[in-house]
Amino acid sequence: MDRIFFISQIIIALLFSGCNEQNSLTIDDLSCENLANPIGIGTTIPGLSWKIKSEKNGTFQKAYQLLVASDSNLLDEDKADLWNSEKVLSPESVLIPYSGTVLDSKYACYWKVRIWDQDEKVTAWSRIATFSIGLLKESAWKASYIGLHSKSGDICPLLRKSINISETGERIFIHVNSLGYHEVYINGVKTGNAILAPAVSQFSKRSHSVTYDITSSVIQGRNDIVLWTSKGWYSKGLPGVVHEGPLVRAQIEKYSNGAWETIAVTDSLWMGRNSGYSDTGTWRPGQFGGEIVDGSIILPDLSASSLENAFWTKVSVIEVPGHEATPQTAESNVITDSIKAVSIRKLGENTWLVDMGTTLTGWTEVKFSSLKPGQEIILDYCDHLDKNGSFVNQGQIDLYLASGKGNESFRNRFNYHGYRYLKISGINPEPRKEDITAFPIRTGYTLASSFECSDNDLNDIHDMIYYTLQCLSLGGYLVDCPQIERLGYGGDGNASTETAQTMFDLSPLYSNWLEAWADCIREDGGMPHTAPNPYPAGGGPYWCGFIITASWKTFQNYGDKRVLEKYYPVMQKWLGYVEKYSSSGLLQPWPETDYRAWYLGDWASPEGVDHTNQSSIALVNNCFIAVCYETMQKIAGVLGKNNDADKFSIRSKEIKKLVHDEFFDSIRKIYGSGIQIDLTYPLLAGIVPDSLENQVKASLYDEIRTHRKGHIATGLVGIPVFTEWVTNEREADLMYSMLKKREYPGYLYMIDNGANTTWEHWNGARSRIHNCYNGIGSWFYEAVGGIRKDENFPGYQHILIDPQIPEGVTWANTTKETPYGTVSVKWKLENGNFGMDIIVPSGCTASIKVPPGGQNCKLNGKHFDSNQSWLTIDNGTYNLTCNL
Questions:
Q1: Which class for 176: exposed (0-12), middle (13-18), buried (19 or more C-beta within 10 A)?
Q2: DSSP code for 774
Q3: Helices (H), strands (E): how many in the chain?
Q4: Percentage of the residues of the chain whose pLDDT score is greater than 70
Q5: Residue 586's closest CA among 594, 595, 578, 574?
Q6: For residue 795, what are the CA distances in angstroms to 94, 473, 561, 746?
Q7: Which conformational region is residue 143 in: left (phi greater than 0), alpha (psi within -120 to 50 degrees), or beta?
Q8: Phi, psi (degrees; rounded to nearest 5) at 257
Q9: Beta strand 146-147 with 316-317: parallel, antiparallel or unpaired?
Q10: How confident is the model at residue 14 (pLDDT cuts 50, 70, 90)?
Q11: Which of 193, 384, 312 is nearest to 768 (CA)?
């Protein structure tokens, strides 16, 4: 594939080259493992990437040279002590595997790259980038897990030690492996901007470590090290939890004179105390609680004098059962904004309702004045008010106990809330809006897309989904909702993966999440419905098969073949479990277990649509299994496992035939129960014979227009299925008409009822920040925006540019950040004239769909034959015009 792509690049470049002026190439956006200058990665063979910018069409990388060294001063061709790749003939610039001196835990590396273009012109060296290796093996850890004993295990203890450093060294790292959340403070100052660290994991199998560079924080002489910890998901009774309260181990490493030295570790000599924070939640559905903050216990700061004047007790060293402790692969959580309250109204004596003006996931800060010692202030949160305008109890409550020492404030630290409304009780007079601030939180990935068009309704729907997914991507995975369950459901994940990976750069996040899925598979191949899997949760095969579908989409969107290689055995193991319950050839319901509940087809359909019909459940699940086998055929092909690919192909075709024979009603020309998903999924999955396709489509159109009055009428499984089918079939007008409906059910119905995040149910029941209905988001980019992947060239190496223009939309501006750079498509339709501006990043090619019926077509001012269906272009900037 790479060779074909390379040759095509050369040919296209020659076709487009008409002058000999100097190309202007620059190298930017260097990354390691898809992270910028990562500290403490979890592999010794990291993938190195860069992006290329050019001012001239048709330029491309012909070769590259990488230098990697243990010191920035050694980044020279003659001195690079870790790797000098020499000149490598290759157009590849994404995830180039490190191939130098064998690395190990603690290595800190510096690197840079230069490239040659198709004319053998070489660029200057790039800027210097860095990466370091975390602690990869248990033998690298010298630290012990420590914790502070408490009766309830709910306190968030401060753990401290003072160390003397005679010489600061060239670099100093602290590696922290916490079971529960942690923050690191050096000499009274918090290290880094990460919060709620580390990312989630399945504690019975794995915990994560995070590495911090504290070189600039330590000083010669005394240094006060404080670890502030909290239980988070490390909650009593959940898998792998062996202690009532959080545990942590940490070690500080100093690099000098070419070697690393361990200068401090957690052990029995550390001291601890109650920080004044405690967690009230059980971390079960509806019981995530919040935090109690006792102002009389909180230290004024973590300076040396404050630490010395506080009372401390000895910590306990705790033995933790064997599990893998591996470096976190995803970005840490970060605060992305600050939001002030928009209104406050009185509910009763000393009780106030605060409206933040938007739903959000994050922390809250409230400033107080003139409180009495011991005064209790209750902060209660919800994401919506009921139909009577009353506060909805969602089990999200914080409590502040006043010290009475003047100006005070409450601020979350180790728990968070999904909310819009805040009820404050126990305070008088009325709090001020400027004293109440919300801090939205998400995993610190890059926003990687933009969309805007002439129709404001479409913009509003897009923006709602764009924002919703940010509210749900916290902790290195996608949760169903942040306030009630916080679970990484595979069904919700499958429903939104294409949209989320289009909108954001989520390769590291999915690396973390897929690892959790692999950790959760059982010995017999059974899969849970969520990962991590702390307790049983509802779902069905569409939930369990996330390991296949999400791995494939991650490969398609980011071009990382290693994802397929790593999880291929897990996929095979799960399909073996599927076969165990497919004795008749089709999958039959499997039993509930102690880690998995229910057996769903679709879920959260609108009122009047029966997704519980057994025929629909069986149809939906077997359509999904057929698609899984078809996907496995592709995965096996990519991995060069041709025999496996043939077997998967045969099995997929067998299932498709059996599904048609079992579920097609030849009289009514429907499948299953005839609801929208029952008709769409067989069409999308290739189950419907060609001779019946038009009849089944007619049944689908009738179901939509006659029985559902033109509305979307599916749940979380049906939304992405219908979206993919509509996009493939170029049914832009149909989708547009459905999205424009303002009555129930629909996205505009949500917006007209105050939503700026999507709901769990079409009628707004339970959660108003949810991941059920976000699968529609890919349509804005792939259909209206016209930017689609070519499955044969993963990672957008080849881009299909094919805007589908609904009647009534006159322009759209869309961008998508790819592993190679930004692709941009801006089109406009005016007075019968169609114009489109296109930017294709270097390293990619594209095919443009020529507008049907176009006349007087020009590309960059030059006429071309408008009878051809597709026009192939190389990277660069283009303008296409046609008369329609």
A1: buried
A2: G
A3: 16, 44
A4: 97
A5: 578
A6: 9, 22, 10, 32
A7: beta
A8: 55, 35
A9: antiparallel
A10: very low
A11: 384
pLDDT value, residue 467? 98
- Burial class of residue 448, CB neighbours in 10 A (0-12, 13-18, 19+): middle
Other CB atoms within a 10 A radius of the CB of residue 703 amount to 18
Task: Tell me the average pLDDT across 862-877.
Answer: 92
CB-based contact 109:71 (threshold 8 Å): no
Residue 446: beta bridge partners? 505
CA gap 488, 497 in Å, rounded? 12
Summarize the confidence of residues 815-833 as an average pLDDT: 97
663: which 2 tokens?
Answer: 């579920």
Per-residue pLDDT tens digits for 115-142: 999 999 999 999 999 999 999 999 999 9
> Are the C-beta atoms of residues 442 and 333 closer than 8 Å to each other?
yes
Token pair listed for 444: 């610190």
What average pLDDT is seen over the chain?
95
Distances (CA, A) of 590 to 539, 596, 677, 834: 12, 10, 22, 54
H or E element that contains 514 = helix 507-520
Among all chains, which residue has been given the structure tokens 């994401």?
Answer: 383
Tokens of 227: 């670890």
Cα separation, 763 vs 777, whole angstroms: 20
**Neighbouring-strand partners of residue 314:** 271
Residue 801 pLDDT exceeds 70? yes
Instruction: Report which of 61, 58, 29 is spatially closest to residue 878, judged by C-alpha positions.
Output: 58
Q: Do 146 and 247 meet the contact criterion of CB atoms below 8 Å apart?
A: yes
798's tokens: 């080849």
Helix (H, G, I), strand (E, B) or coil at 246: coil
> What DSSP string describes 58-106?
T--EEEEEEEEESSGGG-STTT-SSEE---EE----SSEEP-SSPP-TT
- Residue from 835, 841, 861, 859 nearest 57 by CA: 841
Number of C-beta neighbours around residue 166 at 10 A:
8
Is the pTM higher than 0.85? The answer reads: yes
The residue behind tokens 């600039």 is 216
- Check residue 20 and give its pLDDT: 36
Q: Is 133 helix (H, G, I), strand (E, B) or coil?
A: strand
| Overall size of the chain counted in residues | 884
Q: How confident is the model at residue 6 (pLDDT cuts 50, 70, 90)?
A: very low
Question: Using CA atoms, how far apart are residues 103 and 544, in angstroms rounded to an integer?
Answer: 36
- Whether residue 664 has pLDDT greater than 50: yes
Q: Cβ atoms within 10 A of the Cβ of 237, count?
A: 10
Phi–psi pair at 835, nearest 5 degrees? -130, 145
Q: Is residue 13 predicted with pLDDT exceeding 70? A: no
- The pLDDT tens digits of the residues spanning 226-268 come to 999 999 999 999 999 999 899 999 999 999 988 999 999 999 9
DSSP 764-794: --S-SS-SSSGGGGHHIIIIIS-EEE-TTSG
645: enclosing H helix or E strand: helix 642-663
Instruction: Scan for tokens 């996040």, then name that residue.
Output: 509
Tokens of 196: 């709620």
Contacts of 205 (CB under 8 A, 6+ apart): 240, 323, 324, 519, 520
Q: Is the dihedral of CA 417, 420, 425, 430 positive or negative?
A: positive
pLDDT in tens, 443-477: 999 999 999 999 999 999 999 999 999 999 999 99
Distance CA 217, CA 173 (A): 10
Pick the closest to residue 373 from 326, 412, 406 (CA basis): 406
User: Residue 214: helix, strand or coil by DSSP?
Assistant: coil
Cα end-to-end span (Å), the chain: 37
Neighbours of 754 (CB within 10 A): 12
pLDDT at 152: 74
